[in-house]
Write a structure and sequence with these properties.
This protein is mostly helical and 312 residues long. It is built from 13 helices and no strands. The longest helix is centred in the C-terminal third of the chain and has 59 residues. InterPro entries: T2SS_GspF_dom.
Amino acid sequence: MSPMLLGGLVGVLFGLSLLLVVRRLPFLRKPSVDDRIAPYLRDLGGPEVFLGVVDSSSPFYAIVRLFGPSLRAGAGRLERLLGGAASIRRRLSRAGIERSVEEFRIEQVLWGTAAFGAGLVVSIIAVSFGVGNPIGMLVFCGLVGVLGVLARDTYLSTQVRRRERRLLAELPTVAELLALSVAAGEGPAAALDRVARSCRGELADELQRVLGETRAGETLVRALDGLADRTGLLALSRFADGLAVALERGTPLADVLRAQAGDIREAGRRELIESGARREVAMMVPVVFLVLPVTIAFAFYPGAVGIRLIAG
């Protein structure tokens, strides 16, 4: 890198840093209404008064304490730009993540910042070796930062799918344990409590949440409906609806649970067969495009070389 270009980059970084410091000076920063009334609501609001919806148990508490205004401003701009708060809230609930949309947006900002920083380091190294130009590298850093923001959203969808697979894997066992408890003479609430205490996993945690809602005054049927709405899984929705219908109409609950467990296992076998068929078709891709051309090359190349030698 030439000394002039290096000096220009250092000057730009110094100017941006100085501008950031000047903008954050106390006499130039106008406090918001929340900042002005927060000291008078200390006993009422706790940490949420000062940090929006991020409480002290959040992993982002210390970061928000240090860079709270900047991160919240970035999260707000990101929310206005991307939108979809309802979708994010629903996916966070389906993934079993106890975070708010603002916390998720802050996490996206952090992922984008980390990706931008990594791209900047790579760009500086590349420019120092004479590869590329500064403008193109800045565009590259911006693209990497955008990819970092989108990667967090994609990872959230991956977390949802992983949790749904765990719920589906646990559902038949939980249904059969409930059937055994009910057949032994326990009531539905007692059976749910016994299974929730005996099992470990995502579905057991959901059952404990259902029991907590019933202890808080909610009916068991409505708590089960909330379980179906939170998870979004068709099999789990049928399980919750079957329990609710059996409780409302007096249907033998043990028979319903056994039938549901059998249906879920049968659906799992069908999905496994379909997955095997899809993978069998996918295995043809490397065979056709990699193995077969190499085999043809090994078969015809010696003959082609021999013909060339004879002709020469």
